[in-house]
Amino acid sequence: MSIGCFIFDWNSFWINIIAGFIFFVLSILVSTWLIPKYTVKLIRKKNKKYSITKIGAVLQELCEFLSESPYRDEILHFEQISVFTRKKDLNNYRFVALCSINVFNDIVFPKMTLVIYNYYEGRNPNESYNLISDEFNRLKEFRIEIERILMVHSLHIDENIIQKISNLCFDIKALETKYKFNIDYDELIEEIKVKEERETERSGIFGLNEIPPIYKNLLQLIKELISLNYFEYNIENTIRN
After folding, report:
1. What pTM was computed for the model?
2. pLDDT tens profile 113-151
3. What gap in Å lies between CA 70 and CA 65, rounded to an integer?
4. What values do phi and psi take at 31, rounded to 5?
5. Rounded to 5 degrees, what angle do the CA atoms 42, 45, 47 make?
6. CA angle 175, 54, 165 (to 5 degrees)
7. Can you say how many angstroms the Cα of residue 203 is from the centroid of all Cα atoms in its chain?
8. Contact residues for 116 (Cβ-Cβ < 8 A; gap 6+)
9. Could you give the count of Cα atoms lying within 13 Å of 91 in the half-sphere of its Cβ?
10. Alpha-carbon gap, residue 49 to 45, rounded angstroms
């Protein structure tokens, strides 16, 4: 009867331990870094199409509001910008918006302020009040529409852009607050007419000084959106020879 001798192979044992540890570390790296990174990249690529659509919708709304503005001037509207998606994606290449003012020309920012003040200059308070009331209603409807777009599509819009759009809406709300003083002023005039039985006319208006900053921020926001890598644009002269 023979008894076999069992010899333990320490070299193979340590090789297996080290190899198992290496594969364990690699599996952790793959599961915690590589897979999430690749997944996020795929999600961003998939969301890019949606982002272009949603930001394009915001840009279109901004440009349409600007094009319907009563503040017009030959210098201010000397050039316009046609915005398109990038030609790299020919399947989705399309027209996005038409901006009636060349926001890349720095002169339009101070010029817009002058045009706004000149629009009301020389008018009596009642006429100015009626015109500001029209603009107030336009801005309020514009704010509500922009906030609706943000509420529905915020998941596909960059946080930085959302913040700037929100700031624009906040400026419009500040105008809405200031405008209410006109209503209080009207009530006071009517009260004087009834109590003192004499005619009292409006001597001033509230809210005018809040309009130029709104348009300045609007122009700046349009400029930043057009400059995104999602779009390309053409600047065109609006005066035909």
Report:
1. 0.76
2. 999 999 999 888 889 989 999 999 999 999 999 988 888
3. 10
4. -75, -30
5. 105
6. 25
7. 37
8. 71, 211, 212, 215
9. 1
10. 8
